[in-house]
Every structure is written in structure tokens, then in C-alpha cells.
Amino acid sequence: MSRPPTSTVLRLKALQAWDRWRLARLAARHPGLRVHAEASSNFAVARYVLAPGARLRIGAGAATERVPGALLFWLGSGADVAIGEDCWLRTEVEPVRILAFAGARIAIGPGALLNGCHLSAKREVVLGRGASVGFGSRILDADQHDLDGQHAERISPVRVGDHTWIASDVTILRGVQVGAHCVVGARSLLTRDLPDGTLAYGAPARARGPVGDRSGAR
Question: How many domains does the chain have?
Fold first, then answer.
């Protein structure tokens, strides 16, 4: 394979240095922001809205594309968001939106893939090691609004297990616990828990069969 021209290499190095400088400025502006030195410098072009007391940590090896504004971190006061090592927040097809309301927690396990999806937590959303969420999918731990004057919004944590694949255009609602090594088919609405190793799809989704060990799946 031929090497790129020296001028291209120099431009890329200059761009990376500029992005590292921007990340340092962002960290100075937002005391709760910590981007590991071995994370992609492309995180410099993400959009950060961090209220006082919010914490956002991005681990070593985490990556995203250099698409300005396509990745949004919106954290309310006291919210805590952790992006694990070697995660990929993929934005070239659809934007990735990560919203943690005041006091809420979002934890993304090592090696997870967020591909153009939307996570919203008012209490807690947790994705396990190697979990994948496809483009257009949404994970919500709350009803988002009161039903009426007598029925208040309900909030319950959502968890997605290790090596589970959430396909495209899936919606996971509050309180759902998805086991490890599961597959949830495209355009499903998940309203109930799934045990480990389950294939599910439909609206509402229901179990359709077993799934084996996905730890080596891509």
C-alpha cells in the first residue's frame, strides 16, 4: 500500500493537534469533562452542553467521526455519563444523541457501538460490554411527560446486557431489562424484559427463539 503524500500527513497532524487544543479548552470550560488522551481527537467537534456539577468521562480508545455537531452530549445538573474504553460513537449515517437529565446516569460498557441512536436518561441507562445499538434506535427510561393531571410521568432504569445487539429503529421503553447475548430486530418496540440469549422482534416485541454466544460477533 502506497504511503500518503507528506503534505497530507502534515495536514492531518496539524488538524489533530488543533483538535487536542480544542479538547483542552473544552475541559477548562467544563470541569466535569474528561476525555482520555488515547481517545479520538475527533471528540473535539462534538457538541457539549454540561450543566454545573455534570460529569462526562470518555475512555481510552473511544472513537467517533469528525462530523461537526453530529455527536451531542447534553447533561443536566449532577448528571453522570461514562463512555467506556474502545467504544465507537458512529455518526456518519445518523447523529448520536446522549441526554442525561439532572442527577441521571448513563454508562456505556467497553467496546460498545452506538450507531446513530438516541439515549435518554432521567434516572439510569446502562449498556453492557460490546453492546450495539443501531441507527434510529431510542432507549428511554421515562415516559417523557405526565399522562394527565392525575397520572405523573413514570421513570425506571433500563439495562442492556453484554454483547446484545439492538438493531435499527428500535424503541426500548422505561424499566426494560435486556439480558446478555440478545438480538432485538429492526423496528421493534420493546416493553418487557428479555432473558439472556433471546431473539425478539415485533411491536410489541416478544421472544421468537434462542441466540447463542455473541461475544465474537460483529
Answer: 1
